[in-house]
Amino acid sequence: MKPPLLLWAILLPFLTLAVQWLLWPWLNPYVWLLFIPTVCLSARLGGFWGGLLSTAISAALGWYGFIYPQNFSPPLNSATVSTVLFLLIGYMVSYTHERLRRSQQQLAASLQQIRHDSEMQLQRYAQIVATSGDMLAFVDTDLRYYVVNPAYARLFGATPEALQYRQVAEVVGAEIYSFIAPYLERALAGEPQRFTTQPLCPDGQQRIFDVEYQPFRQNGLICGIVCSLRDITILKASEAKLKASEVTLREAQHLSKIGNWQWDLTTNSHYWSEEVSRIYGLDPLLPAVAYPQIRRFFTPESWGRLAVCIEKCLVSGIPYECDAQVLRPDGNPCWVIARGVAIRAADGSISKLHGTIQDITQRKQAEEWLRESEEKFRNAFANAAIGFSMTTIEGGFMDANPAYCTITGYTLDELRTLKFSEIIHPDDVKANMALLERMLAGQISDFVVENRYRRKDGEAIWVRKSIALVCKANGDSQWYIALVENISNRKQAEAQLQQLNADLERRVLERTAALTTANRELDSFVYAVSHDLRAPLRAMSGFSEALLDDYARQLPDTAKDYLQHIRLASQKMSGLIDGLLNLSRCIRRELHQDTVYISAVAEQVLAELQHNDPERQVSISIEAGLQVRADARMLEAVMRNLLGNAWKYTAYTAAANIRVYSQNQDGRIYVCVADNGAGFDMANAQHLFQPFQRLHSEEEFAGLGIGLATVQRIIDRHGGVIDGQGEPGKGAVFRFSLNVGSDNRPPPLNGTENNG
């Protein structure tokens, strides 16, 4: 206890006496009202002894200052009791304060020791952290950095001192802190945390960190978090490369159909790669089959040879390589080449065997195919009807098949004593040698030529030969291969054909001249029909009409009928002339290829027919978008004739219907014109497209019988086909298709589209 504090504990009762003396008129009769707090304060300041002294002084001052002076008689019992109680209270207060003071001192000493121990541990931890290669930091419960090692500070481009006592959120940034905050909270709650993150570091690089948060406890209380960061970017990259290498190795083994295996003799453990399992036809997830149980995968003959090689390797360490045939569980056999080498331990004993299994089925198949091909080639070479020879670069014969010997008249032994230039006709040798020089120079790889051979008997024959140069792998020339065919008969036939062609050309010229003359005569006929015949017809029609107009009253009725017949006959004759001229133009007129919109032409023609015959009520249906490539004027004539006929032959039909539509049949597109009019009998269908042939009488339907003939000529000019089908009283349908090729026979009409 310090003396000044004890002095204050002694002086306080006297100060209280003075205050209470002044306030006594108001405090009377409460003597101890101010002295009790004084004792408490004195005990607080002076401790136990200060409190006792203050209690004794306060009791004396209260007794003699406020109790005894007012009572001239001996002390009353109540005053004595209150004084004793005051003394007891003072003692208790002093004792209690002393105990509290000592407890506080002990607690302060304990806290000081704990703080000292913690600082020592933190200093030791700081030394460990500073020397560690990992990024380490200690974060207190307020998430402030307390200790940071240089590696951790470098991550943020700072020093450990610069990060000390700074908030974690301030240092790492809002984005990273929002990610790590839940882990920090769980670590402060006592749960160790470990996770991997890939943040964008302050230096602008993105790295991968293995992060560990360990709660730091002191005497059972969590005082902070030990943060450990390890940069595993390179490790992850290495792992990725390793995985990629493993994948590449598996793919390479799969592509090359080669697998590796290992047999540890000390532990009798076996390892297979996935490709080994695939070669044996097993699930790669199944364990490797031990030796010698693998014998079930091989044919007995193959296992006999392979087992001998393995046993030799186990005994003497001799590497082996053996072809064997594998029997897979699915029943599909394959061929493999098994290789193995021995690995010796430090004492010289053989401890391991490892090797490879490679699927060589394709190679075996290729070898078999090559063997069969060679056999087929030998058979073809010996039995071919075409001559086959092999000659050296210098021109000497190496080999020739029997057909070649037959063509040349020499035996194989005789050919081997000759040069190939000796059997070529002298007039053709120079041209052949020039082609061979070009081939040797690399300008051409092969050539085909027709020239003459001189047989052994001296006969000259024509041959067609194909020459090819066979080279080595390095590009050096080895020999020539020649295929030779005797074409003497063909040459004779060509000569005869040339003579026939010359005769044919002469005949074509003669026929062309005759056709030109006929065309001129036809032109003269057309001119005569157009001009010479029209004038008399116009005169007949004109004079008949003049007689009827001028002398109608004077002529009897019979004369009038005769004149009317003359007029009608002349008009019919004029119509026939027009039809013949149109027919002639269709045959002789030059074609022009245009895009003809059938739908639009049909609408225009039917509109004109409706305008000329407004009283008719006809249902019309035209498919939209119909178009073809043809001569526009000619195709318009086709549509006018077909639609005109449909309009005419539906004149007596109550609910007339005319349809224009397309039809796809057997890959051809047909344009169809259908009606439900008078129709016709299919027994007379052969007369449909013949000029002046009509299937209805003049009294029923007027006409000249030349319209359909004109239509057929136009369709023929376009290389198309046209046909018609009908039934009396049920209408008819005509359809045509353009540019259908040489086959002008259309398939039958579909029954559902006959009458529209």
Q: What characteristics describe this protein?
A:
disordered C terminus, 21% strand, Beta-Lactamase, alpha+beta, 6 domains, 5-stranded antiparallel sheet, 756 residues, elongated
Overview of the structural elements:
There is one protein chain. By secondary structure, this protein is α+β, with helices and mostly antiparallel strands. The chain has 20 helices and 22 strands. The strands form five sheets. A five-stranded antiparallel β-sheet has the order 2-1-5-4-3, sandwiched between helices. The longest helix is centred in the N-terminal third of the chain and has 55 residues, at 77-131. The protein starts with a helix and ends in a 19-residue tail after the last strand. Residues 121-191, 373-443 form the PAS domain.
- In what order do the strands lie side by side in the largest sheet? 2-1-5-4-3
* Rg from Cα: 63 Å
Shape: elongated
Number of helices: 20
Question: Residue ranges: pLDDT <50 for 5 or more in a row?
Answer: 71-76, 740-756
Q: Please give the share of residues in helix.
A: 40-55%
Largest sheet: 5 strands, antiparallel
Structural class by SSE content:
alpha+beta
* Proper CATH architecture of the largest domain: 2-Layer Sandwich
Task: Supply the CATH superfamily name of the largest domain.
Answer: Histidine kinase-like ATPase, C-terminal domain
Which fold name is given in CATH as the topology of the largest domain?
Heat Shock Protein 90
CATH class descriptor of the largest domain: Alpha Beta
Instruction: Provide the β-strand percentage band.
Output: 15-25%
Q: Kindly give the count of domains.
A: 6
Q: How many angstroms does the end-to-end distance come to? A: 132 Å
Catalytic activity: ATP + protein L-histidine = ADP + protein N-phospho-L-histidine
GO biological process, one term: osmosensory signaling via phosphorelay pathway
Organism: Methylovulum psychrotolerans
Coiled coil: 483-510
